């Protein structure tokens, strides 16, 4: 099942993906039964509300080809950073590009959503702890890349710079999460293509790695990194980060008005 | 009835290199690889929710390390208008590590690694956070005295400079930083972090038992 969290007519709803006009995922069937086309909804990150912040872990350089592109050796251990919640936005929202910036790029990433409390999980059991998946677009503003705590929060934790969604897809509905095609288009032109098969540290490894020193809780997110093919995005660009079986996340770049 | 201890409702951000002595200690490395230049913007990290330890709780030292670093700090709790609602004592523990080049999540986000003071001190009661002095006692012996007049970015400036690139939400916490000379402690130790006007934060360290 593909779950959504949306606002419709001023009220927050949960819902599930619905076909419309022969097109899969074109609408949402809301919790009150109404079927509403995608474009009539305000989309929220597909996470259940929580009183405590969710932990958002993100991987740098987790695809060998991206590591090569950025002139780094493939890491021997996951390069991890943590994001705050204020960076998240939903599907079909706008991401702000600060004025004067030279290079801001998307990163299409498979996001793992932890399904149950995980501590000292062994690799072979790791999939039992995954609740589902969604798509993240983990924008980076490279102008601000200083060599401290790299990638730092000024590059990676800006408001609106992490679109997430549209759907939370139950793990049971994703046959092999480590063999999914990824694709990004900018204004309809394909700029990034890859497969989750090419991750350096795959989903079971990451669950084992993190749960060795920190307890993962339901709803925690792990953004698993992006393959080769990132390009600069300008105000007005429509960026679609899409992962097979998970969904197509639409985002528009906005500038100063 | 005792009120339940304070716990953050948002994200807790730590600040690196916000004490002059801490900057001086690292200065020789700042112009060398991998850093290459001193940082321009505040260098932040996140203390994830699994690290939060209420006042009075026992904090587990991983079996793999003999000692942990005690990071006495004060957190600014963000109010509804993005202002400072109050201040709280915090114990920002780390597994000792030499490099800050890559986010040392596995050294800073270990379960329990953020002791949180029992109560907020209302921002209205505080004339100037630069007057804060914090003492760290381990098993009753004074190990460190931290003087918040030595901040590179004083509280309001840190808040403004962070606000340049991200919005802090109501309930988020921004730590003012930890000074150089952080004491080390081991399982069995009792850590007290105190400051005039604040209720003392106490945590005990316990050894990890075999998994």
Overall 3D shape of chain B:
globular
Give the CA-CA distance, first to last residue of chain A.
39 Å
* β-strand amount of chain A: 35-45%
Tell me the distance between the termini of chain B: 37 Å
Spell out the helices and strands of chain B N to C.
EHEEEEEEHEEEEHEEEE
Q: Largest interface by residue count?
A: A-B, 35 and 38 residues
Instruction: Label the structural class of chain B.
Output: mainly beta
The low-confidence runs of chain B, each spanning 5 or more residues with pLDDT under 50, are none
Instruction: Give average pLDDT of chain B, whole number.
Output: 94
Structural class of chain A comes to: mainly beta
pLDDT averaged residue by residue of chain A: 93
For the secondary structure, the number of strands of chain B is 15
Characterize the main sheet of chain A. Answer: 12 strands, mixed
Helix content of chain B: 10-25%
Q: What percentage of residues of chain A falls in helices of 4 or more residues?
A: under 10%
Notes on the structure:
By secondary structure, chain A is mostly beta strands. Chain A has 3 helices and 19 strands. Chain A has helices at residues 64-69, 153-156, 203-213, and strands spanning 2-8, 11-20, 23-30, 35-37, 42-44, 56-60, 79-83, 88-89, 93-96, 104-105, 108-114, 130-137, 140-141, 162-170, 181-186, 189-195, 221-223, 238-243, 247-254. In chain A, strands 1, 2, 3, 4, 5, 6, 7, 8, 11, 12, 14 and 17 form a 12-stranded mixed β-sheet that branches. Chain A has a 5-stranded mixed β-sheet with strand order 9-19-18-15-16, with no helix packed on it. In chain A, a hairpin with a 2-residue loop joins strand 15 and strand 16. The mean pLDDT of chain A is 93. Chain B has 211 residues and is mostly beta strands. Helices cover 11% and strands 33% of the residues of chain B. Chain B has 3 helices and 15 strands. In chain B, the strands form 3 sheets. In chain B, strands 1, 2, 3, 6, 7, 8, 9 and 12 form an 8-stranded mixed β-sheet that branches. The longest helix of chain B is centred in the N-terminal third of the chain and has 11 residues, at 20-30. The radius of gyration of chain B is 16 Å and the shape is globular. Chain A binds chain B through residues 51-55, 57, 60, 79-87, 119-120, 144, 146-150, 152-154, 157-159, 213-217, and chain B through 9-11, 13, 16-17, 34-37, 39-41, 43-46, 48-51, 62, 100-103, 105-106, 109-111, 165-169, 172, 211.
